[in-house]
Amino acid sequence: MNVSAQKRMAAEVLNCGENRVYFDPFFIDEIKMAITREDIRNLIKEGIIRKKYEQGNSNYRKKVNHMRKKKGRGRGLGKRKGPKKARTPKKEAWMKRIRPIRRELKKLRDRKIITKSTYRELYRKAKGGMFNNVAHLTRYIKEKDLMRRGR
């Protein structure tokens, strides 16, 4: 029996999709006779037409996927949407890079391994983005022989 028109009307009245509309199979003849929205509303009132529950996501599957993501699965290039800066903003990447460099510079200055003037010079170069990381900074200091004499 074709009750697609009734299903469409019931979906509109119930404010849901057609897949969520449930017709009681025992009263299919009555449903077939319903041709106006008013008829559909009366059948809903009687409980012959009902709205099915919304289908949710399984909590188990969510947990499993979360554990896999923590391990690093499903994070490859094929799963990424948007550019690199959308996943880690430019500013965040910069902060991650500059903070350890500045910390290292302060440590070297406080321990009197480098002079204040050298510290200022290196600080400005770091701000200009010259060093990629702390290892790069220390390599530069050794190459240019910027450490104080007797160290």
Key attributes of the depicted protein:
mainly alpha, 50s Ribosomal Protein L19e, Chain O, domain 1, two-stranded antiparallel sheet, 58% helix, Non-ribosomal Peptide Synthetase Peptidyl Carrier Protein, Chain A, 8 helices, rod-shaped
Characterization of this structure:
Helix 6 runs antiparallel to helix 7. It is rod-shaped and about 100 Å long. It contains eight helices and two strands. Among the domains are: 48 residues, 50s Ribosomal Protein L19e, Chain O, domain 1 (Orthogonal Bundle); 57 residues, Orthogonal Bundle (Non-ribosomal Peptide Synthetase Peptidyl Carrier Protein, Chain A), CATH 1.10.1200.60. The protein has a two-stranded antiparallel ribbon. The chain is mainly alpha-helical and 151 residues long.
